[in-house]
Amino acid sequence: MLLQTTTNTLIDLSQKTDGSQDRAAFAKDVAEGLSQRPKKLSSRYFYDANGSRLFQQIMSLPEYYLTRAEYSLLQQHRAAMVEAFAAGGFFHLVDLGAGDAMKTKLLLGELTKKGKDFDYVPLDISGAAMRELSRDLQQTYPEIYVQAVVAEYITGLQWLGQHLPKRKVVLFLGSNIGNFERQEGQKFIRQIRQHLQPGDLFLLGVDLTKDPATILAAYNDASGVTAAFNLNLLERINRELGGNFDLDAFSHFPLYDPQEGVMHSFLVSEREQEVYLEATQARYTFAAWEAIHTESSHKYTLQQATDMGRTAGFEFVTSYLDEKGGFADMLFKAV
Ligand code: AVI
Questions:
Q1: Ligand 1 midpoint to CA 57 (Å)
Q2: What does the pLDDT look like over 90-100, one tens digit per residue?
């Protein structure tokens, strides 16, 4: 489906259903996760409207350094980045999981100021976010041609491979790679590479290993926003799948493993209890203090991140770090 906005384009590749397929897939994942030992739920279900709003709040928490660090490194290195991107002439700037493009706008501003020849292709599963971004950029940067794509990552990548003929620079910012398990992250970067041509560029945002106390605090903020974000998953199950989770009987428990470099988030059942889901017509039992694993946020060393890019078929170009050396945007070139 192709819709024209004023001059920009919106390509909607999302599966249009009445929602029943999404609900069935959600119910199946939840039933499987709650029947497993140990129990788990996928963090991909965090982001309903309320979860997305809570994540916006997380990004401005004093403890959650990630967003500020990446924003500041982009401010500091944008001129160098833009020169590296534009060295081969015209390019498509592809932004995977663009959202409101808060950070990418720093690059868009710099590219425009320097008169570089490019178009912008934000890709996100949220149609509302892509429509809003397209409108917003039409106002702020009318000179930039925006082709917003509404799609899951893999569908979107296939579309890019088939429809964008010119050189590509792909951004995957915000430490989103951290929410993939290591092997899955490696696989995903290989998939990105498979949809690119030799010479195309890839900029990957990674949160680096650092003082474990700093990392733990980022996922255990004093004001309890991260706890609400985690618990919202149970609220969503109650609302969308007819669950009867008692939110007061579960608590947020974050745990950083400094040897593995991974932040784990759990929801812990504070008592023995049983939960019923209308969607599956089944009951799930919890022992006192039994935990559900809800999210992994992997941290990388510069070497690990470099190796991940190389293994996927990229050559390492350079890394741009924030002034504290805690966050990196790593630039790779497809070979
Ligand atoms: C989206 N993602 C990179 C965030 C992270 O840091 O893993 C999600 C998040 N979870 C808790 N706080 C933020």
A1: 11
A2: 999 999 999 99
